[in-house]
Amino acid sequence: RMTKSTRELHMRSTRSHRDAGERIGYAHAACKLGPLFVAATDRGLCAVEFLTAEEGQTQLLRRFPHAHIEAGDAQLRGWVKQLVALMNNGAKPSKLPLDIRGTAFQTQVWKALQRIAPGTTISYGELAAQLGRPQAVRAVARACGSNRVAVLVPCHRVIGRDGSLTGYHWGLERKRALLAREASAKSKGRQPAPAMR
């Protein structure tokens, strides 16, 4: 029998099942961190990933099997330009809308990630404690690994208790590069690009 907390950890967001007939636009570009694939619904960005165009489209079809996937419009291409500048040199983007979908617990974790200040890090255990779930360290780590909106939902700022980088969905080298850039900007007194709220 599931406890209340277990049910909450596994509860699906109803929005994740509403992709029937939904239109999702995509675009891709190159940045210093590699290929960048971006996708958005009419609500906002649902994917910012370091993937090729082909890899990104394949992932979108898996996540949204009933949606209509198409090339993005001028608005999305404008967002991509801002994202490339962010990935290349930390340039602050305008406030970009997000459409992140997952379980209730995943969504809670992703929102908490957006409150981590640029240039700082937090451990999985500390993040779990902040959420009032100190025993849910592994669940927090899985939620970070399930994040599909890179940098804007900054899961790269979560590290191991011993300071190790642990893992990163898009590779440890990218995580190391992102953290190094943010730390450098902070040490020089420059304000790194903040997370989206």
Supply the key terms:
single chain, 197 residues, alpha/beta, two-stranded parallel ribbon, 39% helix, 15% strand
Shape category? globular
Largest sheet, strands/sense/barrel: 4 strands, mixed
Mean pLDDT: 87
Low-pLDDT runs: 1-17
Rounded to the nearest angstrom, the radius of gyration is: 17 Å
The share of residues in extended strands comes to 5-15%
Count every helix, treating DSSP H or I runs of 4 or more residues as helices: 7
Q: Structural class of the secondary elements?
A: alpha/beta
> What's the helix-strand series?
HEEEHEHHEHHEH
**Percent helix:** 25-40%
Beta strand count: 6
The side-by-side strand order for the widest beta sheet comes to 3-2-1-4
Give the terminus-to-terminus CA distance: 36 Å
Structural account:
The chain is of the alpha/beta class. 39% of the residues lie in helices and 15% in strands. It is built from seven helices and six strands. Helix 5 packs across helix 6. The longest helix has 16 residues, at 74-89. The radius of gyration is 17 Å and the shape is globular. 31% of the residues are buried. Residues 1-17 have low confidence and may be disordered.
Present the secondary structure layout.
Blueprint: H1 4-10, E1 23-31, E2 34-40, E3 45-49, H2 53-63, E4 68-71, H3 74-89, H4 104-113, E5 122-123, H5 124-130, H6 137-146, E6 158-159, H7 172-187
Parallel strand pairs: 1-4, 5-6
Antiparallel strand pairs: 1-2, 2-3
Helix pairs in contact: 4-6, 5-6
